[in-house]
Fold:
Amino acid sequence: MKLIRALIATIALSFGSSAFAAQSDIVDTAVAAGSFKTLAAALQAAGLVETLKGKGPFTVFAPTDAAFAKLPAGTVEALLKDKAKLTKILTYHVVPGTVMSKDVAAGKVKSVEGSSITVTTGAGGVMVDNAHVTAVDVLATNGVIHVIDAVIIPQ
Structure:
């Protein structure tokens, strides 16, 4: 059964489909997808795993491993050693509540970190700050994941 759930989560993340019923929380859904190993390690280092496994609901703009790889050399390693800075960056990727793609509008949205994320919409798709949203509405039992192609940093 766990293998089937992982496969469904992977398919949902790969195709950005919300056609699959949520079976796992945000953390387990991301881990099952296989392309969020750096995010999972960062959540662990920041002590945020239990929070994102909690009741929620949360909307997470989840950077892929490839997004983390775009950061300058040594950045990820340095962040993993700086819990305060890492927590600030990771909570900037989280918005309270469940925001589905159909509800997204251009403007500012307050993150859990406290700063506002700038959302833009247009012919090129949806962007959050400097990151393109590449997959939407990946349902979890405690919220939703939108996949992004860059790590966003609060100002």
About this structure: The first helix runs from residue 2 to 15.
